[in-house]
Structure formats: structure tokens, C-alpha cells
Amino acid sequence: MQTGVQFQTLMSAKQRFCMMTAICLGAFLSHFTAGVVNVSLPSFTQLFQTELGVAQWITTGYLLVIASLLPVMGKLGDRYGHRMLHNYGFLLFTISSVLVACSTTIATLLVLRVVQAVGAAMFQATNIALITLLLPKEVRGRALGIMSTAVALGGMTGPIAGGFIASVLSWEWLFLAHVPVAVVATVLAFRYIPVHLPKKQAKSIDIFGSGLFTIAASSLIFAISGGNEWGWLSARQIMLYGLAIVVLWLLIWRGRHQAEPFLPVAVFRLPAVSTGLLISFASFVLANLVLVVMPFYLLDYAKMSSLSAGYLLTAYPLLLALTGPLGGWAADRYQAQAVVLAGLGSMGAGLTALGVWLGHMSTVELIAAIALVGAGMGLIASPNNSYIMKHVPLEHAGAVGGMIALTRNAGLVTGAALGLGMMNGQTAGAQPDLEAYKTVFIMGGWLSLCCLCIWGYATRSNDRKKRANG
User: Fold this and answer.
1) Which H or E run includes 323?
2) Which of 90, 227, 303, 379 could form a disulfide with 327 if both were Cys (CB 3.0 to 4.6 A apart)?
3) pTM of the model
4) Residue 246: inside a domain
């Protein structure tokens, strides 16, 4: 077996293409399957004679398990090899997808959905590390950009495909439709992702530390996802936030006294890593503000048809698909910091335009504003990921790659919760008025500005340190 650095020069163009195809198919499928059942949740209550609150765990439980396990799986990848975790995650995901469709009770379905989420977490947590370790740095940004596009397209097409499947096929096909693609991805992964050894073998896996992190992450994300339903200052929310803070503090305190802590705290102290993770989280919050709130505005306030609203919202994934690889290419050729800055500016411009002029915008202007948000996301994701991984020691690539994936999932949950929560802060039973929608987007514009300032300051400080050391 050889190291990832050696494979950067030995891999053929065909092997790189097939490897990237497998990785991107996995990134697409894990987010596609997260949303494909959303539109059918009410029908599951009738099929299995259960309450909607139970049926919602088909989606919520899937997302919660993935988010909780991402850093754990990344750490296991650092220990046992990212290829092994990634590829066996494909196998587990594919087999459990078939088994979910054979469920006869809601309990069985939920358990198998958790197994499916474990498989998805295994390849979500290791895909960034594989790209970082196995591809040359001159093409790494473009590869991360293509993968980010696959993530966005999976998230956008899942609900659309779910609606189509629910209208013409039985519920089992919600879990079977993607299986042929998963089989192809699994075969490509085992055939073309090279076997490699980690640069430095971790001494052991901190089982207790991984358990603490899982408790902290699941408590926090569970609280965020339920904030609208329970109330943001309810006793349950405060208990969950308190539990997350106490457990996370205990994890960090414990890690300071270990040779091989679960969380590589020293790595997170690097400004490039900590700032990059913050920007990753915030950018997905901003994106999901638009993706969650705009359909309500278009359908309920602007009185558009579902078809027209769907066409209009495709401006986001289309621009992301175009600018994702472009942003990666620019990060490879120029400076990732400048590309991320441009992306934050683009997202901020789109959100500010919606916040100021919503209600007076033509269809073309709405499309342009949504396109700015999509373009900004494409310019942020891959350059930011590349910038983070550039500053991470290779022995921690899996752990930090898992944290990047965690910020993505947590950002999506937080963006949805904030957007819906602000719109629901109206009179009970009343539809949100125009000012409620504008307030959501204005808040997004201010958040973009804060991120611009933080990123600009961090970039400036990093440049000063380089000049001082150079």
C-alpha cells in the first residue's frame, strides 16, 4: 500500500475521473435521500397508523444521526483509512435502503432509516479527506467545487423527486429509486479509489470522547430543529442547550489531558480552520434561509403556481452548479480568500435586495436575487473547504473533514429553524405579512456583512503573519 501523496502522481486521468464520480454520487445521494420523503410524511401516518410527530422522525432522525456521527466517522477514517470507511459506508447505505422498503412497521422503518444514516455519515465524513489526500493541490479546489455542486443538487432534487414518486408510485420507491445509482457508486468506489495508508497512524480511538461529542451534537441539533415547535426559551430548549454546553466543555477539558484527544483542539486554534468552519456554517444558514422561506412567499403571498415557483427557485442550484467548479478553479489558480470574499458579497447582495425590495420585484429581479445567493454559495463552499484543509495536518484530515460536513448539516437545520421561526412569530393562524419575509432576508444581509468583516479581518491577519515570518 502507498500513501496519498504518492497516489497524487500515480493515478491516471481515468482513475481520477471514476474516483470523483463515486465520491460525488455519494455526496448527491446522502442529501437526496434526506429530502425525498418530506412530501410523503403525512401519508406515512395513514400507512403505518401512527402520528405525524412519529412519522417526522423518518427525516429528522436521519439528519440527526448523520450530524451526530460525522466527526466520529472522520476520526475513524483517520485511524483505519478513509477509503475503508467511505466504501463500506456505501455498502451499508445501499443494503439498508433496500431493507427500509421492506419495513412492515413504523418502528422497523425508523431503525433501518438510522442504519441508512450511519452509512451516509461514513461516506459524508470521509469524502473531503479523500479528495485532499489523493488529488494534487492544483486540481483540489475544482474537485471540491464539483462535490459541493453534487451536495446542492441532491438537496434540491430530493423533494422534487419525492413529490413525483409519491404521485405515481408506491411509498417503497421513495427508498428504492436511488438504489441503482448507489450500486454504481459502490462499484466505482471499490474499483477506483486507491488503497492507501494514513500518513500517521493514530494511537487509539477515544470511545468515551466520541460518545460525549455525539451527545453534545445531537442535543444541540435536536434543540435547534425543535425550537419553533417548543419555543426558543422553553424549559426543554434551555435544558438541551445546557446539556450540549456542559458536555462539550467536559470533552474539551478532558482532551487537554490526553495525548490523542477526540477533538484536535490544537488544530481548531488555527485561525484558518476556526474561521473557515464558522464561514461554512454561516453560509449554509444563509442559503437555507432563502430555500425555506422563498417557497412560502412565492406560493402564499405572491400566489404563484407550484410549477412557476419551482422553475423560479431553480436559479439557485443552476448558478451554484456553474460557480462551484469555477470557484474551485479560481481558488487553485489565485487565492481562496479572495474567492470566498466575493462569494460572501454575492450572497449578501442577493439577501439585501430581497430584504429591501421584496414585494416590488419583477419575476426577473427575483430570479436575479436568488441567482446571486446561489452564485455566492458556489464561490464559498469549495474555496473555503480547500483553504481549511490546506492548513490541517494530514493525520487530522478525516476529523476536520467530518467537522466541515457537520457545519454544513447544522447550518441547514439552523437556517430552516430561524427562517420558519421568524415567520411564525406572527398572530396565531395568520399568514406571514410582507414585512415578516423582508425581516428574514434583512437579517440574512446583516449576517453576510458580519461574515465579510470576520473573513476580511482573518485574511488580513493571516497575510500579516506570513509577511512577518517571510
Assistant:
1) helix 315-333
2) 379
3) 0.77
4) yes
* Residues contacting 59, CB < 8 A, separation 6+: 34, 35, 37, 38, 41
Report helix, strand or coil for 379: helix
Question: Would you say the C-alpha torsion 144, 149, 155, 161 has a positive or negative sign?
Answer: negative
Instruction: Compute how many other C-beta atoms are within 10 angstroms of the C-beta atom of residue 167.
Output: 9
132 and 240 fall within a common domain: no
Cell numbers placing 425: 412569530
Burial of 200 (0-12, 13-18, 19+ CB in 10 A): exposed
Domain total of the chain: 3
**271-330 tens-digit pLDDT:** 888 899 999 999 988 988 888 788 878 877 888 876 777 778 888 888 888 888 888 888
Mark whether 228 and 300 lie in a shared domain. Answer: no
pLDDT in tens, 353-400: 999 999 889 999 999 999 999 999 989 988 888 888 888 877 777 778
143's grid cell: 474537485
Domain CATH number, residue 436? 1.20.1250.20
